[in-house]
Amino acid sequence: MLQLHRHVQPGVAAHIPASTTLAPPPLVSWDDSVPYLALVISLTICIVVFLAVIGYVYLRYKRAEMSRQAYLMSHAAFLSRPTLDGLIDQTSGSGSGLPLLVQRTIAKQIQMDHSVGKGRYGEVWKAYWRGERVAVKVFFTTEEASWFRETEIYQTVLMRHDNILGFIAADIKGTGSWTQMLLITEYHEHGSLHDYLQMNVLETPSLLTLARSAASGICHLHTEIFGTKGKPAIAHRDVKSKNILVKRNGECAIADFGLAVRFISETNEIDIAPNTRVGTRRYMAPEVLDETIDTKFFDAFKMADIYSLGLVFWEMCRRCVTVGGLNKNYLEEEKYELPYYDMVPNDPSFDDMHQVVVIKKVRPAIPSRWQENTVLLHLAQIMQECWHENPGVRLTALRVKKSLCRLDETYANVKIV
Length: 417
Ligand SMILES: Nc1ncnc2c1ncn2[C@@H]1O[C@H](COP(=O)(O)OP(=O)(O)OP(=O)(O)O)[C@@H](O)[C@H]1O
Ligand SMILES: [Mg+2]
Description:
alpha+beta
């Protein structure tokens, strides 16, 4: 192979036959590459600056977005973890109850704690909903009508009142062949007035608070509120110390509406509870016992409630201490007893009650010590006007409430010990 070695002088163009050698790379001078380099460098700088700006804007956007999300999350968490009071205030200012879906959700989230008592229609449990205490009444399977009625009454518009047990939710849990009916309400640690009076004696102000607030609850129930979003008049039909709860502030809350009736004034109709349940015999008014009550006349049910309320006042007054003795040197009160405790057996029959209340026309005794205490004397007068044989002359709940409010204002601070 022929090798061609030529010495090329600088500055002299050499002629190299195309057919015999490879073309050498073109010669680029330094002067030619400067603008190119400048272009590359400035382009690179532009790209870096552009990327830095984009990165900065992105980071700022991302940080803003993250803080917005954090805000939304905390807000959402707040919205999804409401308290019972918050929920009730938001959705049922009118007192018609929480939306059914909310009620069902609450019912599913309840944690039962322990049983606090058993009645004729169900068992009451202390339970928790998201850490808040609630009472859950589990109705016996045979008591569907009571559950239904009570739920219906609690859902009545404008039912909410300081002296009516606060309704939270109602639900039915079914497992095919077996159904559990629940009613969830506020929980009151003192339990029923019946429980409370056995464990505590009362001073005059606490007696007046209990009596006035119980009357207030019954009065709210009995009162019809007119208007499109009004409230019908409601009669309880099972007023007794076991169906009244004692709140932490010493006031009463009326409970247990499984037997209540409502009066629809537009149609002049009484929506009688469609169950066979009857009230508690011991507290039944004479007209209920002798079945002369005119069930077409709504006020008749209110008058029967007032009779029972009179008996409850008697239970309260027995536990109010007064100073006794010739030298006023000791305190006295009566032992807790149910009305007619000394006249009828435990769980009295209709006949037992009829004999005492209708035939013999006996009423609970007014102890002589009450005569010496203005408040007890006033209350004795009120209860006697409540349990009068003639329903028409009994006081109305409004009258009782007003009298007790006046007494409460006067004697609210009169302490005995
Ligand atoms: N909301 C509540 N908070 C605290 N304790 C309650 C509450 N509701 C009921 N209880 C307790 O549970 C007990 C049982 O109540 P329940 O209404 O089932 O029966 P009762 O009123 O005692 O009898 P009855 O069946 O004749 O009405 C009450 O006596 C009371 O001690
Ligand atoms: Mg009860």
